[in-house]
Every structure is written in C-alpha cells, then in structure tokens.
Request: fold
Amino acid sequence: MSELEKDLMVEVDGVSMMFNLGIEKGFSIKQWFTEIGKRRQKREEKKKNEFWALRDVSFKIRKGQVYGFVGANGAGKSTLLKIVAGVIKPTKGTVRTWGNICPMIELGAGFDPQLTARENIYLDGAIMGYSKEFIDSKFEEIVEFSELRDFLDVPVQNFSSGMTARLAFSIATVVDPEILIVDEILSVGDIAFQEKSQKKMMSMITGGTTVLFVSHSAEQVKRICDRVVWLDHGKVVKEGGKEVCDEYFAFCTAK
Amino acid sequence: MMTVMAIVFSNIFRISTPGVSYLAYLMTGLTLFNYYSEASNLAMSSVVANFGLINKVYMPKYIFPLSKCLFVGINFLLTLIPLYAVILLTGTGLCWQHILLPYAYLCLFIFTVGMGFLLSTIAVFLRDMFYIYGIVITIWTYLTPIMYDINMIGNKTLAFLMKFNPLYQYVNFAREIILYHRTPTPWMFAGCAVSALGIFVIGALVFRKKQDKFIYYI
Reply:
C-alpha cells in the first residue's frame, strides 16, 4: 500500500445498483402457472422495468475528509449512502470501508412504539450494534441530550414526532464513529434543539471524523464539506471542491 | 385441543398403543410437532415482516428466523409442564433416560432453525408460500406418526419411507425414552443428528447465498 492509500477510509469502486421496479407484479406460484404462456412477454417487460439507481460510481474518501453529496430527488444519493453503510449490496462493483461506521440514515428505525423510551434506548442501541454495557455507560448522556427525562417511562407511541426524532438523534450520536453517514437529519425538533444538534454534528465532524453528508441546503454543504460530489440520475456529474456546489445550485436555478 | 384429540382418536377410531397410555403417547408427539409447526411458520414470515428494518439498518439477517425459533422454544419449555403432568398422572413414570431427552429437543431445534432459514428465503421470493405451507404442515401432521403408531401401517414400504421423515426421528427418540423407558439405539442418535444437521446446513447455505437479493424482492 502506498503512502496515499494508507489513510483511505472508504473506497467505492465502480458501484452500480439496479432495482426492478415491476418485480412485485409476478412472484407467486399461482401467477407462475397462469402466466406460463406469457413468459417471453414478461421477460421483455422485466427488462423495461429495470431502473439503475446508480451507474458506475467511484470515489475514494480519505481520513478526516467531509464529503457532501448533492443532486435532485431520485439521483441516487440515499441509495449510495445505504450501500456504503452496508444495508444493501450493490449489483456491481465493490465498496470497502475501514473503521466503524455510524449510519444516521433512518433514525429511530428500530423503535417499537409500544415500549417506553427507556426500553427503546436499549432496543435501538442493540439494533445499531452497541453492547448493553456501552449503553449503560452512555445512558445518562442520551437522556441529558434528548431532554426527555420526564418522559422516560412513557411509551414512544405517545410521543410527539419531534420528541421521537430527538430521542433517535440522541441515541445515534452518542458514539464516536470513524465514519459518519448523515442523510439530511439536521432538522429535527424545535429551534433550540436544532441548534443543539447542529452543534453536536459539527463537533463530530470537526473532530476528525470522516463524513458522508447528504443535504439539499446549499449553505450547509458549503459550510461543512471539503469535497462535493454532484449526482444526477445515478451518475457522477462532477466531483471536486466547493465550487461544484456552486455549479450545482447555478444549474438548479437556471432550470 | 389435546383433550379433544385424545378422546376422538382413542374412542372413535379406537387407536390403542399396546402397553402404554395413549394420552402420554399423543402428548409426546404433539409437543414436539407443535413446536416445529409454530416455529417454522413464524420463522418463515419473519424476514418479510421485518423488511422495514432490513431496508433501513444493517443487521445480520439470520437473526430474524433464529429469534423466532428461540422465542417459540420458550413456549415449548412451558408445554413440557403439561407433558410431565400427563406422564405422572397416567402412571407412565420416569426413568433415568429422561436426561437424554434434551438431545432430541436440541436436534429438533437445529432442524427447525434450518427449515426456518429455508422457508424464510422461499417466502421472500414466492409470497403464496404462506398458504402452501399451511397445507404442507397439515399433510405433514398426518404423515408423522403422532396420533397413531407407525406399526399400525400395513404397507411395509410406506412405513419404511415414513421413517425418513426427520420429525419422526425426534418423536420416536422421545417416545423410546418417555413411554418405553429404553435407551435409544445408536442408530436413533445418528438419525436425529444427521437429519438436523443436514437440513441446517442446506438452510444456512441457501439463506447465505440469497440474503443479499432480499432487498430487490420486497
């Protein structure tokens, strides 16, 4: 490994991701029998329904770099982050990561609405791969940050959506990850909490963490990221410094 | 349920198991079979039901079928209480070989986990598997000598073929101990282990090979 390769954190090499949008139409044995004569037609239909969320995307992220991803809805940003996080495997290409990852993609995915906040902290923590001892030691910190001490024994289904989001954010950010994946979650809770969560995120980001960041806010991307990737219809349009961000927004307003 | 079955089969069909209590005979088979049918059913739907989670967070997918098998396992341990009540009340009695019973339970568990892997994978790709499997389970109930004795089958080839049913192996192993107070033969030990590990390996391999494709199909 050369000197340059040594501080590599994430390597995405030729990643393509194909979804089959029409697939749920025909997968039961009953249909398989009734449509036995229409096979050829089906196969052609299937080809038509192929949707490439990502096409041949490659980049390398070094230690401490903050990568921003911009692009229109459906450009493949979230898919890309999910692939890096290991939630889905790419159809083609490889992703390699070095170091532990904290994916903040879908916060609160592991919540069970019938359990109390206290139980959900442990449940969500376990789903994100933290040990019980680790959560025990960080429990106070989570409660403190979410400001939900009075509601610890209330089932989460009785929470407001803002409160749920606050709890989820507090659990997710309690670790010190080497790679942080953020998908537009800086806007949770009320104004005071937003500021607090932004501050927390910034301290995580400036603390030398490698970050993959998706946002639609121009200022945020420009302020936080040192490298920007512009994605459109699954392809990388441009990769570079902050000027890519300006170009993207110029492109958007021109439309 | 068990009472109804006991009354129907012993009085109406006049099935009798020479030398041992029919109730104990039925219960031994039913506890094992009920565990299998409940656990495999839940395990089959586990991956599809938890798709919301699979799509959002990374976690090893084998957790879902495995946790269902463990969860039903706790229910199974509770059904051992009525089983032992029947054993004592019918005068079947205990013997030292009962310490060998966990071997049969363990084999059944491994077999069920293997089937859980296999079924949950199939269920992702073929959604009407749920209905088909309901029928399969019913057929399986009648093909496994739970309510009758395998020696009652006149046709020798059929009886021979039925012995290849893995569930028969575990039920037979448990009966040998509980009802007849005999130590199972080495062949029975081997039959349990081979069927359990065989299905487990097949299930685990299929699951491993296909788990990355789940995401496309849900």
Remarks:
- Chain B has one domain: 26-217.
- Chain B touches chain A at residues 52-59, 125-129, 132, 212, 215-217 (CB under 8 Å).
- The mean pLDDT of chain B is 87.
- DSSP finds ten helices and no strands in chain B.
